[in-house]
Amino acid sequence: MANKWMGHGNPYTKQEVRDRFQKTVDGGKAIIAAGAGTGISAKFIERGGADLIIIYNSGRFRMAGHGSTAGLMAYGDANAEALDIGEYEVLPVVKDIPVVCGVHGSDPRRRMWHHLLKVKDMGFSGVNNFPTHSIVDGHFRQVLEETGMGFRKEVEMVELATKMDLFSIVYVATAEEARQMAHVGADAIISHVGTTIGGSIGVTGATCSMDHAVERTQEIIEAGRSVNPDIFFLAHGGPIMDPRDVREMLDRTNAQGFVGASSLERMGVEQSLEALTRQFKSLSLR
Predict the structure, then answer these.
(1) Paired sense of beta strands 31-35 and 126-128, if any
(2) What does the H/E/C string look like for the chain?
(3) Phi–psi pair at 35, nearest 5 degrees
């Protein structure tokens, strides 16, 4: 029934969000989830028909003109930023689309059960594990894991969210991470194949090929499905930038949809603002 006080909109229960996703799939359509860093982005993402909005701290950096990777750096309090964007920008302007909150699960300063109560009380319908250490590799990743700030903390956060009846849509970068998230009740798994290419601040050389993205995404899907066949699977990042790329992923994998952040919110603003400004500047005096 969605919001029991207003009769519509957030917060939705875990099952209600799942039912919306299933209705989209049963209708033969791809699930489209979108990152929103501002209220106006969220408003028009909803009008465009997206199935879900995800709020995380990188959205604020992205819409300020910086690379999304800034959200992984020590440039602010990721958990506080996500709550702030939700309370004051996004939740007040959307009507019916479910909104989930990015949660930095490895933040050692948070009692995570207490933070998730705040997320739920704010009116979010679920959680997403961002910033995520799944996309950190090499020596630094090893240090994070050995010092108690690794991916396992994100898994524990999702396990808590499941107990609290919060929908969870999670980033993973490997098949093993997909299995871990599936075991603790994740509702939807996003195959994160790297920072998105394109636009003014997308990566160029630091990306993978489409063939590699397809292979990794399918491995993640098969691993998660081996634990729980009822999970929804979506693709994100790397060379998957526009609808044609998503079409290829849907054709070559068992993915059921796509999560667009830079590729949807940032690219939409960059392209439309530049084109509109050029139209204005093309005007001549009488």
Answers:
(1) unpaired
(2) CCCCCCCCCCCCCHHHHHHHHHHHHHCCCCEEEEECCCHHHHHHHHHCCCCEEEECHHHHHHCCCCCHHHHHCCCCCHHHHHHHHHHHHHCCCCCCCCEEEECCCCCCCCCHHHHHHHHHHHCCCEEECCCCHHHCCHHHHHHHHHCCCCHHHHHHHHHHHHHCCCEEEEEECCHHHHHHHHHCCCCEEEEECCCCECCCCCECCCCCCHHHHHHHHHHHHHHHHHHCCCCEEEEECCCCCCHHHHHHHHHHCCCCEEEECHHHHHHHHHHHHHHHHHHHHCCCCC
(3) -80, 140
- CA–CA gap between residue 120 and residue 166 (Å, rounded): 8
As given in the structure block, the two tokens for residue 142 are 């090893």
DSSP code at position 3: -
pLDDT by residue (tens digit) across 61-117? 888 888 888 888 889 999 999 999 999 999 999 999 999 999 999 999 999 999 999
Token duo for residue 138: 């090499």
Q: 3-state class of 272 per DSSP?
A: helix
pLDDT digits (tens, 9 = 90+) for 210-260: 999 999 999 999 999 999 999 999 999 889 988 999 999 999 999 999 999
Q: Is the pTM of this model over 0.90?
A: yes
